[in-house]
Amino acid sequence: MQFTAHQIAAIVGGTIEGNPDTVVRSVAKIEEASEGALSFIANPKYEEYIYTSQASIIIISHSFEVSRPVTPTIIRVKDAYGSFALLLEKYNEIMAGSSKTGVEEYAVVAATASLGNNVYIGSFSYIGEQVKIGNNVKIFPGCYIGDNSTIADNTQLFAGVRVYRNCSLGKDVIIHSGAIIGADGFGFAPQEDRTYKKIPQIGNVVIEDNVEVGSNTTIDRATMGSTIIRRGVKLDNLIQIAHNVEIGENTVIAAQTGISGSTRIGRNCIIGGQVGIVGHIQIADGTRINAQSGVSKSVATSGTALTGSPAFDYKSSLKSQAIFRNLPELHQRIQKLEDTIHELTALLGNQNMEVKK
Description:
The protein has three domains: 3-95, MurE/MurF, N-terminal domain (Udp-n-acetylmuramoylalanyl-d-glutamate--2,6- Diaminopimelate Ligase, Chain: A, domain 1), CATH 3.40.1390; 102-315, 3 Solenoid (UDP N-Acetylglucosamine Acyltransferase, domain 1), CATH 2.160.10.10; 326-357. It has five helices and 40 strands. Strand 5, helix 2 and strand 6 (57-61) form a beta-alpha-beta unit. 34% of the residues are buried.
């Protein structure tokens, strides 16, 4: 598949400097690009590559100043990074098979299920009773959609996704391979004989619009009510979201994080990888949690930055780390002070004895 500079400029609203008929067939980083590749420069520290790159087309911002002649065709835009991201999105849609439609052989669709326009359902997928699927939904091979679930327009489920019964997925949602939506929450009641009795999990999972869920991430159904992922949330791979958790709008969470039951995460939070959050607490809007932190109590103040396990204020942690690094030196200084105090005490004691004489 190939595109000309003219076609690309039309997509991103750019201005061409060079040959509008220049053709590209691939995308690449500016330092690795070869002939026939499209690349971009958004950071000035990469300026040197614009003069040496073999890329055929390079996207740069209007503010980027070129100090000497360049060989590639240039497309100037308002935001080079954003424009390149838009092109990658279009490219990904084409390569991911977003144009596919219809129900493939060996897929099973219940008679009571309803499908919108331009829907694609891959082979070996199962669509249960009373499922409602919107327009332009893409369900790739090997997926399972449980009874009474709904999937809104333009949502994509990649191969091997499992959506249990009664769950709801909004518009423009992306769920990557191996993710499980709506498995039972971890609910067990201790018994007198030291066994555990399972508590039925009768709630569901609600995922709002424009959410992305990474591969092998699990979002458990609520015991009662709903586990809720608000619009714009981005979840990395290998994340565990427990029953009755609510994650606020536009929060992003990195891989291997675990959030325990009934915790509420605010809007616009940033949570690093391998963070552990206990259950039944609240995290304020805009909270930033450093990787491998353990959060054991609620965060009430918006915009708080946390680190460590147990997690505490980020700036205080940095000060503590600075002190910790200097502990050997501080220990030596304290020993010297103690020696000096002993010497002074002994000296004063001798002087007192002489005065008494």
